[in-house]
Amino acid sequence: MDTGLKGKLVIITGGARGLGYASATKFALEGAEIVLADINEEMGKESAAKLHEETGAVCHAYRLDVSRVDEIKAFFAKIKADFGRVDILINNAGIQIRNDCLDFKEEDWDKLMDINLKGVFFCCQQGGLIMKDNGGGVIVNMSSSTAVRTTPGRAPYCISKAGVKNLTMVLSCEFAKYHIRMNAVAPGWIMTNMLQDGFRLGVVSDKQLMAFGRAFEQEFIGQGNTDRTMEQTLDLGWELLATLPRNALDRCDAATLDKYYEPAKARISKANNK
Length: 274
Known about the structure:
Rossmann fold, six-stranded parallel β-sheet, globular, 49% helix, 274 residues
């Protein structure tokens, strides 16, 4: 199937690793020309070389600190000089800083908002100016499921991603007259470096998730025929969820957790005892 991406110039901020690099790989496989824009210039160059080797696509690496408006303007000026266009812009760069609201520092708030929200706005602005001159383009902003389902200990991150969601809604209306399409995607948990950083901060360990996965596979996926009632099945599900820390269950509301989450009833599967 022809996706229409062959030869398109795709810019991905935070593209050197994680979700940004995965997105770049997909675009490259569809024949697009890739620009990885990342604050880590050396990693960006390594990732661009790796992407070219893996896909055969034309790949470039540029340094970009999205927290600085002057760098954003200089970056897009160079892109316009080097390529003359921006067909697709993926605003993926982002960070998270975990801490309780009562202890959150002003400098951490500013750093997170500068990257996650201000950077997205000004990349849309500067990329949009080039697209406007060339008759249109596509912008995709990376929001998060936490924009609508909040997580304790990550309030500023959740707020920033809610901001990206609403920024996208507003700018999509303003940019439409220039034939610029804009949307946001809201991923859930994906095993990226940023999520692994969260593991190291003690929210939930990779070993805990692996243990939960093995137990779930044994008790549900590999269960075969069973005479369990629906009530017994739900009870079993909560016994498995009880193997994880409460603050990792950010898809459940507090009232539901208060009623059903009981760590003392955590079920450890036979698979995890091997």
